[in-house]
Design a protein that fits this description.
By secondary structure, this protein is an alpha/beta fold. Helices cover 42% and strands 13% of the residues. The protein folds into three domains: 84 residues, no CATH class; 185 residues, Glycogen Phosphorylase B (Rossmann fold, 3-Layer(aba) Sandwich); 196 residues, Rossmann fold (3-Layer(aba) Sandwich), CATH 3.40.50.2000. It has 19 helices and 14 strands. The strands form three sheets. The protein has a six-stranded parallel sheet. It has a six-stranded parallel sheet with strand order 11-10-9-12-13-14, with helices on both faces. The relative contact order is 0.09. The mean pLDDT is 91.
Length: 487
């Protein structure tokens, strides 16, 4: 019996109480018979609750004939209610998982596997559709990326919250504005007792400015949760302290780390022999670019071109470029399109559009990233050297956060030097680019090519602080916490 079944029985029992107070004994009998049949369908014959219901029906006959008053009926209803609550405790809890983009599934994959393997739970996955603004207007995005990997899931049109009434819902899409009404958080709230929010990626704590930081805790969809999965104590100190989420936070570590752990330790990721053949014995650079740097009208960071050109010239290096998936929905700048076409056709370069980002990490020796995103945190968890290319402008979020521990664990362009105004000082900008971007980037790439790692110790210290649960057991911790909540 699932919890929702027990709830339905108790609700029907309350309806019988009301009918009894109006002396509608035939309706009471009909309701009692329906409850008995429902219990036997779920639990089989021989339950005490059904026996008590049968006695209640006998008492109804006597009350109808005037042999007894309602007092014995009320006592019997109390016995039935107690039996339903304590004899027919739920033996199964329904857990619903609501991922969206293929790249975000791994934030809850290990949790899904842990709950699916526990006999106390029945699991179901529904990939929710989202709407995105593109260069041709709002576009509806949905793809069944799970069936090919062997994970069963239900189409969003078929799934019904009203019929299913899940006991627990895991979700990682906090932006209700891009969800269809059915999957907006306030609607989910109507049909479940427990909403658990898992952030869709690891957060570089304090390394980003507003409004990006407020997305960790400030959205209504997040505040509606009953349990907030937090990646570390420093994360909670930065984002949830002093907010309603503080009492809801479970400092378990981010379950994304379970997938990364399994990939690194056990080789659990999609292997691509064609990639391996192309790479050979070369050192691999993984390039990460956010779509906001790539779209038409955005100024292309010169470091991206520098990475591509450098690798093209050095036979011992190989490039895997994985632009943010949303970049393909936008109209990219001419410069970026030229670079994408170049990489697509180069024999020592891969333009990665596979469903999971994890293989790109596994085949790489280092990461170069535009923006201190969750990709940087993934790389640091995996102990990959990282070079960060920053935003243009001396007032950028990066320029004001260089004291953050993240910047002690990674290499980056020289943000300490003021950036000249491009229009008024082209020579100064060119000098800045050569000295503050190209020079440290060349040094980084040279180290990687030679197999050197000058920041290994600093990364180790960062991982101790930021990844307290790095042994693949985060999903297990979440499972144990949910069982406590269920009692």
């Amino acid at each position: 019996m699932r919890k929702r079944h027990q709830r339905q029985i108790l609700e029907l029992l309350e309806t019988i109480r009301e009918a009894q107070s109006e002396r509608l004994y035939e309706d009471c009998q009909s309701g009692a018979l329906r409850i008995g049949q429902f219990i036997e369908e779920l639990e089989g014959e021989g339950t005490n609750a059904v026996s008590l219901l049968e006695t209640y029906c006998d008492l109804l006959y006597k009350a109808y004939d005037g042999q007894i008053n309602d007092r014995p009926l009320n006592r019997q209803l109390n016995k039935i209610e107690s039996s339903i609550k304590y004899e027919l405790k739920p033996s199964k809890y329904k857990v619903l998982f609501l991922p969206y983009y293929d790249n975000t599934w791994e934030s809850m994959k290990s949790v899904y596997e842990m709950f699916s393997n526990d006999p106390l739970f029945e699991t179901e996955v529904v990939i929710i559709p989202i709407m995105r603004n593109t260069n041709v207007g709002v576009k509806f995005i949905w793809e069944d990326y799970l069936t090919p990997s062997g994970t069963p899931n239900t189409h969003y049109d078929i799934y019904s919250f009203e019929e299913d009434m899940p006991d627990i819902v895991f979700y990682n899409q906090p932006y209700d504005g891009v969800n269809i009404p059915k999957f907006q958080s306030h609607n989910i709230r109507k049909y479940t007792d427990c909403m658990i929010y898992i952030p869709y990626g690891l957060t570089p704590i304090g390394a980003m400015g507003e409004p990006l930081e407020s997305n960790n805790t400030g959205l209504q969809a997040i505040h509606l949760c009953d349990l907030y999965i937090s990646q570390s104590k420093p994360f909670c100190n930065q984002y949830t302290k002093g907010t309603p989420l503080d009492a809801k936070s479970l400092i378990s570590g981010h379950p994304r780390c379970d997938c990364l752990f399994a990939a690194k330790i056990y080789g659990n990721y999609n292997h691509y022999p064609e990639w391996e053949s192309m790479i050979g014995n070369r050192r691999v650079i993984f390039l990460n670019t956010h779509y906001s740097y790539m779209i038409e009208g955005a100024v292309a960071h010169p470091g991206v071109r520098k990475v591509i050109d450098t690798i093209a010239k050095r036979e011992d290096l190989f490039l895997i470029w994985r632009p943010h998936p949303q970049a393909y929905l936008m109209k990219v700048s001419v410069k970026m399109q030229v670079m994408l076409d170049f990489v697509q056709s180069h024999e020592r370069m891969i333009l990665d559009r596979t469903p999971s980002i994890t293989p790109a990490y596994m085949y790489s020796n280092a990461v170069v990233s535009l923006f201190p995103s969750s990709v940087v945190m993934d790389a640091l968890f995996l102990d990959l050297p990282v070079f960060l290319l920053g935003r243009e402008g001396s007032n950028s979020a990066l320029a004001g956060n260089l004291k953050n521990p993240l910047f002690d664990a990674i290499a980056h362009e020289d943000f300490n030097q003021p950036l000249p105004a491009g229009d008024s000082d082209p020579q100064g900008l060119e000098l800045y680019t050569e000295q503050c971007i190209y020079a440290p980037l060349d040094k980084f790439l040279y180290e990687i090519e030679r197999g050197e790692d000058s920041m290994q110790e600093a990364r180790a210290q960062f991982r101790i602080q930021e990844f307290p649960h790095a042994d693949g057991t985060i999903a297990k911790t979440i499972l144990e916490e949910v069982k406590k909540i269920l009692g």
